[in-house]
Design brief:
alpha/beta, Alkaline Phosphatase, subunit A, Arylsulfatase, C-terminal domain, 16 helices
């Protein structure tokens, strides 16, 4: 048998509790989780798509790979991508992506065959059969990145899936993804490592009252021009924003991670792992050489049932709604330190209690300064690796990216 293939499925906006919770029917994803490694505390690096994929595909945090937002950045030429490493090892590399992941960002560097499909005003999963057909012609060993957009706002559930009044269609799209992606996963074949994850989570009202309050706040901001006359109230209402990119709360950074395939026995991993660990882990499993200057590490030992020392996770919120401000954070299973950059810089420390019952309402920094200091030191080390922009975007490339972001509703 040849080296294992890799199918890397990244479902946009997929929260951890959407798969590992019991409120959305996902029998197909559950079956893969049951027969492989299911990581219950996987942490995204950012809450915006392009920086997220930059970290997953390089094993580096944003300061090192250089993509600090959806717009105005290109992947640093000093980092090695997963596609480049697997390609050098003899793998045929493919990318099937959508949304803001256009070639101009540099994120797709190294993929021999990259297809970017529309993510705006198209029917859900209209691309599925075409992609599955292309997969049938792959030459082994191959590595494929498949990025889906259907769970991203605005939700467009099919006629056979009920639009939930309390989630605005989010749950319906997760259930639809579970059913419609099954043939794609089956087409991968037995000699394939399958990775299922989300790039980041999602914010949405989970009660009817919450949905009504959000609609009322949105209308009030527009009708009464609160940003001009009542900026404090406008900021409060803006804090009720839906989607992602503007914060680093648990439901925005906790994502599911399932890895299954040849030689992988069923295991449930409670240890914290990070998206920057994916590249070195897959390379380790496939015998591919990993560059030395990355922030992630292989967690294959956890898949094999062994243990690893705890490693903190660095995160950034860099979304369009932050208007140039940035939120950074460092997380362990028990703690999260957030640093809010803006008109008034401030830090906040929250108890996560092992990730099971997080408390992100009470700032306990003054009660645990030693913990805050330890996490701040890790943050400073990550930020010290910041790279300079070595390949600035041309005006034409910037225009392409901006148009895609407008089409997708970001601008």
């Amino acid at each position: 048998m040849s080296a294992p293939n890799v199918l890397f499925l990244a479902i946009d906006s997929l929260r951890a509790d959407a798969i590992f919770g019991d409120h959305i029917p996902t029998p197909n994803f559950d079956a893969y989780a049951a027969r492989g490694a299911q990581f219950r505390q996987c942490v995204s690096t950012t809450t915006s798509t392009t920086p997220c994929f930059s970290s997953m595909l390089t094993g580096c945090y944003p300061p090192r790979h250089g993509v600090r937002g959806l717009q105005g950045y290109r992947l640093s030429s000093s980092v090695t991508t997963m596609a480049e490493a697997f390609g050098a090892a003899g793998y045929q590399t493919h990318a099937e992506v959508t949304g803001p992941l256009v070639p101009e960002t540099g994120v797709l560097r190294g993929f021999e065959n990259a297809h970017h499909r529309p993510g705006y005003k198209v029917k859900p999963f209209v691309w599925r059969d075409e992609v599955t057909q292309r997969m049938s012609s792959y030459t082994e060993p191959w590595m494929t990145l498949l990025h889906t957009w259907e769970v991203h706002r605005p939700y467009r559930p099919g006629p056979d899936f009920v639009r939930r009044w309390d989630k605005g269609g989010y749950e319906a799209m997760v259930a639809m993804s579970d059913e419609w992606l099954a043939p794609v996963l089956e087409a991968a074949g037995d000699n394939t490592i399958i990775v299922i994850t989300g790039d980041h989570g999602e914010e949405y009202p989970d009660t009817r009252l919450g949905q009504k309050l959000h609609r009322a706040a949105t209308k009030a901001r527009k009708k009464f021009r609160l940003s001009k006359w009542f900026p404090y109230m406008d900021k409060k209402f803006a804090g009720m924003a839906l989607g992602h990119g503007f914060a680093l709360w648990e439901h925005l950074v906790r994502v599911p991670l399932i890895i299954t395939g040849p030689g992988i026995a069923p295991v449930r991993v409670e240890d914290q792992v990070r998206h920057v660990d994916l590249f070195p882990t897959l390379a380790d499993m496939c015998g591919v050489t990993v560059p030395g200057d990355i922030d992630g590490r292989s967690v294959k030992a956890l898949i094999d049932g062994a243990t690893l020392p705890e490693e903190p996770a660095y995160m950034e919120a860099v979304g369009v709604k932050l208007e140039g401000d940035r939120i950074t954070a460092v997380r362990t299973p028990d703690w999260k330190l957030m640093r809010f950059k803006g008109s008034k810089d401030k830090d906040a420390l929250f108890r996560l209690n092992g990730g099971s019952t997080p408390d992100e309402k009470h700032n306990v920094l003054t009660r645990h300064p030693e913990v805050a200091s330890m996490l701040a030191a890790y943050m400073d080390r990550v930020l010290a690796a910041e790279s300079e922009a070595d390949s600035p975007l041309s005006e034409s490339d910037e225009a392409v990216i901006e148009q895609h972001l407008r089409d997708l509703g970001y601008l």
